[in-house]
Amino acid sequence: MMIELILVGIFIGTMSGFFGIGGGMILVPVLLVLGFEIKDAIGISIVQMVFSSVFGSYLNYKKGSLIVGEGIFVGFGGFIGGYIGGYVTHFISDTVLQFLFFGLLLFALFRLFFSKTHEDDSQTKTLSKALLFVIGLIIGIFAITLGIGGSIILTPLLVGLLHYPIKKAVSAGLFFVAFSSVAGMISRLSTGTIDFHNGLIVATASLVGVTLGIWLKDHVTSKNHKMALLVLYLFAIVMLIKKIWL
């Protein structure tokens, strides 16, 4: 099992760096297929997200693709929402969690598919700091409850509603994950519901993948990047359908 978890970690890390996701939207379904229970899979996913998002955001900042500014306010909202979400998980059934996850994936796919591809910041809208905080709060609660970082919801919103260039949105999404996942891990640790042994195996391996994923992100066009994101969402939806109905 360790070899499988290392390979999964490298793969998820690459996805995380390239798409700006925590990795949970892919990792949770993969762990379910490997035989883990949904709540154990969510715990492992949160550990991996902490490692990949913090390291990936550091790399993005060094490369100049992460603009911290507005991200701080969304991030603080995500931190508080993620902390709340860590407790909420215990009061929701596995079936409800899976259907919530499925609905969010469909929403993200729809938002991204109908968004225009922006290459620069000239059309980027700005929002009040309070509204950014509230957006982060709501996404954080949903995200950690489902074992995902939240950028699966945030990135399509930034691209589809606020007209962010896709690479800037991806970097902002991964930065958001750092806040929500750290908060989620703290709250879940206090209730003793994280498989740290397997989580650290996946998380450590994911650092290699994050480095590769960010390098790839910087070497593709925005149009191709968006197409790859759409394929990613479709892949996650198919895996979840297989788990729930087949």
- Looking at the structure, what is the overall shape? globular
Q: Determine the N-to-C terminus distance.
A: 24 Å
**Total E-strand runs:** 0
Helix content: over 70%
Describe the largest sheet: none
Fold and architecture overview:
There is one protein chain. This protein is mainly α. The chain has one domain. Helix content is 78%, strand content 0%. The protein is built from ten helices and no strands. The protein has helices at residues 2-19, 24-33, 38-63, 68-88, 94-113, 129-146, 151-160, 166-189, 196-217, 222-245. Helix 1 runs parallel beside helix 9 (196-217), helix 3 packs parallel to helix 9 (196-217) and helix 4 (68-88) runs parallel beside helix 8. The longest helix is centred in the N-terminal third of the chain and has 26 residues, at 38-63. The radius of gyration is 16 Å and the shape is globular. It starts with a helix and ends with a helix.
Short précis:
This protein is an all-alpha fold. It has 10 helices and no strands. Helices cover 78% and strands 0% of the residues.
Question: Layout of helices and strands, plus pairs?
Answer:
Blueprint: H1 2-19, H2 24-33, H3 38-63, H4 68-88, H5 94-113, H6 129-146, H7 151-160, H8 166-189, H9 196-217, H10 222-245
Helix pairs in contact: 1-3, 1-9, 2-3, 2-10, 3-8, 3-9, 4-6, 4-8, 5-7, 5-10, 6-8, 7-8
